[in-house]
DNA sequence: CTTGCCCCTGACGTCAACGTCAGCTTTTAG
DNA sequence: CTAAAAGCTGACGTTGACGTCAGGGGCAAG
């Protein structure tokens, strides 16, 4: 079943990727510079991406929002691209997951503090 | 009942505040520079804090962790210090609360993404 | 042809909460 | 009394994900 699929995939330029993912063109270039995203080049030197680049960029944004650095993301990319992982990567995945969970707990505590203040100030106009 | 309470409150120096709150001395000075914390001065110029400075610093940390800037915190301090607030402040409180909640949602989504990957990679060793 | 739009490569600027170093004074422990 | 510990005031350095500016190319429409 795994045939060498050379079915001329439609390639898009950087502007379309940026608009599609809701980020700046500068950001997309930055991702490539960090090794997060690879692009072919047109004869004139323009970057050409496969459409899945858009969802990848969205994913990067989500991970950035969760506090992962681009370095960490590059280290963990093999976990998606290949379904394959070694022990180190699995450990890193869990570490990041736990870090995110801890952050969630902190934020909920902070939110509750603000809710208290809001409740009080609403009673003291 | 509201007597001018001059009951010689025990004052502490910056080191004790820092250790008590689990931050660096530099951080405490920074908070003063940003207008978050006020300190008396000893004749020789050393900062003297009331003990509640420690819990205040802890609170700052919590707000920082929630993504508030020192500027925002200064703007919202009156909501604690006095029980008094104006409309702008109440609006800002709610805005920050909602921002935090949105961040929580983002983090939970990110965590779930990682959980998926973890589940998959655990089945493909 | 030229106008406009998109793309390219550097490379410096930004922002926030501190870290760190220098050089000096004060307080404390023995 | 003396040395270590703690404080003080500048002031520059750090980190990450971009923003922004300079200077230049290429290509389709009018």
Structure, described:
2 copies of one chain form a homodimer. The first copy, chain A, has 125 residues and is mainly alpha-helical. Chain A contains 6 helices and 3 strands. The first copy, chain A, has a 3-stranded antiparallel β-sheet. The N and C termini of chain A lie far apart (70 Å). Mean pLDDT of chain A is 91; it is low at 1-6. Chains A and B meet through α3 and α6 of A and α3 and α6 of B. The structure holds a DNA duplex (30 and 30 nucleotides).
Task: Give structural attributes.
homodimer; 125 residues; mainly alpha; 3-stranded antiparallel β-sheet; disordered N terminus; DNA-binding
Strand order of the largest sheet of chain A: 1-3-2
Task: Please give the radius of gyration of chain A in angstroms.
Answer: 20 Å
- Mind summarizing the main beta sheet of chain A? 3 strands, antiparallel
Beta strand count of chain A: 3
The residue-averaged pLDDT of chain A reads: 91
Query: Most extensive chain contact?
Result: A-B, 36 and 36 residues
Report the helical percentage of chain A.
Answer: 55-70%
Classify the beta-strand content of chain A into a percent band: 5-15%
* Apparent shape of chain A: flat
Distance between the termini of chain A: 70 Å
Q: Could you say which structural class the secondary elements and strand pairing of chain A correspond to?
A: mainly alpha
List low-pLDDT spans of chain A: 1-6
Report the order of strands and helices of chain A.
EHHEEHHHH
The tally of helices of chain A reads 6
Q: What oligomeric state best describes the polypeptide chains here?
A: homodimer
């Amino acid at each position: 079943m795994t045939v060498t699929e050379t079915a001329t995939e439609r390639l898009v330029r950087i502007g379309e990727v940026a608009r599609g993912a809701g980020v700046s063109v500068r950001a997309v270039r930055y991702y490539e510079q960090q090794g997060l995203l690879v692009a072919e080049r047109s004869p004139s030197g323009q970057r050409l991406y496969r459409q899945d680049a858009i969802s990848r960029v969205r994913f990067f944004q989500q991970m950035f929002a969760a506090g992962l650095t681009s370095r960490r993301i590059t280290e963990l990319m093999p976990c998606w691209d290949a379904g394959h992982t070694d022990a180190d990567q699995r450990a890193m995945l869990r570490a990041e997951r736990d870090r995110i969970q801890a952050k969630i707990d902190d934020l909920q505590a902070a939110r509750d503090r603000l809710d208290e203040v809001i409740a009080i100030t609403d009673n003291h106009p």
